[in-house]
Write a structure and sequence with these properties.
Layout lengths: L2 E10 L4 E11 L2 E12 L1 H14 L6 E6 L2 H8 L2 H7 L13 H13 L1 E6 L7 H15 L3
Parallel strand pairs: 1-4, 4-5
Antiparallel strand pairs: 1-2, 2-3
Helix pairs in contact: 1-4
Length: about 140
């Protein structure tokens, strides 16, 4: 099983507003940058999209280390909140709906394909790949202004 590092970030101007996402895949000395955006979205939707698109780009199951500055994503997965939300009909509790269930559903499918590891990094703290993902995401968001 190939080992892959997946770096991701999302950006949004306005929240909701124009947004973008960036992802970097690194495997065996190769590097691939991916990015995209939407005219009206939220930061969390772009964070999720970056991870989904990065994992979807892998042609076969891999051992993936996801490196992200999104506590929303890292905590929801590692603390298993997302699995509870799904089991409860995409409700966070008896009153509050979980946000972005469409994207979480897509992400859960991808997580099943790969052997996953997770690493949170502080955003805007000089981590080179996180900074590059942010640049990709911001550039995409600016296309919708």
């Amino acid at each position: 099983m190939k080992q892959v590092n997946l770096y991701t970030d999302g950006a949004c101007s306005g929240n909701p507003g124009p947004g973008g996402w960036g992802a970097i895949l690194e495997c065996e000395g190769h590097r691939k940058e991916l990015s995209g955006g939407e005219a009206s979205t939220t930061n969390n939707r772009m964070e999720l999209t970056a991870v989904i698109e990065g994992l979807t780009a892998l042609k076969f199951p891999c051992e993936v280390t996801l490196i992200s500055d999104s506590k929303y994503i890292i905590d929801a997965i590692t603390q298993r909140w997302v699995y509870k939300w799904k089991a409860n009909g995409w409700m966070r509790n008896k009153k509050d709906k979980a946000l972005n269930p469409d994207l979480w559903e897509r992400l859960l499918v991808q997580l099943e394909r790969h052997q996953m590891h997770y690493q949170w990094v502080k955003g805007h703290a000089g981590h080179p790949e996180n900074e590059r993902c942010d640049q990709l995401a911001v550039a995409q968001s600016q296309k919708f202004r």
